[in-house]
Amino acid sequence: MKKSIECPFQKVFPSQLEKGDLFFMQLAYNEAVNAWTRDEVPVGAVIAMGEEVVASAFNETRTQSDPSAHAEMIAITMAAKSVGDWRLNDCRLYVTKEPCPMCAGATVMSRLGEVHFAVDDPKMGALGGATSLHELPFSNHKPKVFRQTMELECREMLQAFFKLQRKST
């Protein structure tokens, strides 16, 4: 069994005084640190409704042996339970990496009002990277998409994780 690599990134402590996009992305960043400490790809997600967090999660594909256990998918399920409705129109998703096609589809299907992500994914990103599922012409819901909040910090973490993973194999 491969030895897990200690996460060299520290959690951040966002100010509770201003709960804007940076605040929620910092919480998602902390979830990415949680993922790394559990030997998961460091992607974190937070869903906010107004100034309140209604869900937070990190990737758990390895832990759960489940290819659908992405941070976004887990957070969307948690948010729907928290809100009491599968329609998340008044919610905003913050995620450290651009959602893949599965997760982007879930953002559309759950009717999330906004999606904010830090790092573009030109290979598998589905909110403007490799494709744009949120812009399907006949879709009845098109979330607003915002990019690059905390891009540098999140990109550094992802690149460091994969570099260390390649070294340890």
Which range best describes the helical content: under 10%, 10-25%, 25-40%, 40-55%, 55-70% or over 70%?
Answer: 25-40%
How do the strands line up in the largest sheet? 2-1-3-4-5
Instruction: Please summarize the sheet with the most strands.
Output: 5 strands, mixed
* C-alpha geometry: globular
N- and C-termini, Cα separation: 11 Å
Q: Report the order of strands and helices.
A: HEEHHEHEEH
Low-confidence stretches: none
Number of helices: 5
Please write out the topology.
Elements: H1 21-37, E1 44-49, E2 52-58, H2 61-64, H3 71-83, E3 91-97, H4 101-109, E4 114-119, E5 144-147, H5 151-168
Parallel strand pairs: 3-4, 4-5
Antiparallel strand pairs: 1-2, 1-3
Helix pairs in contact: 1-5
List the defining traits of the structure above.
169 residues; alpha/beta; 5 helices
Polypeptide structure, described:
36% of the residues lie in helices and 18% in strands. With 169 residues, the chain is an alpha/beta fold. Helix 1 (21-37) packs parallel to helix 5. The radius of gyration is 15 Å and the shape is globular. The model has no long low-confidence stretch (mean pLDDT 94).
Short characterization:
With 169 residues, the protein is an alpha/beta fold. It contains five helices and five strands; from the N terminus they run H-E-E-H-H-E-H-E-E-H. The mean pLDDT is 94.
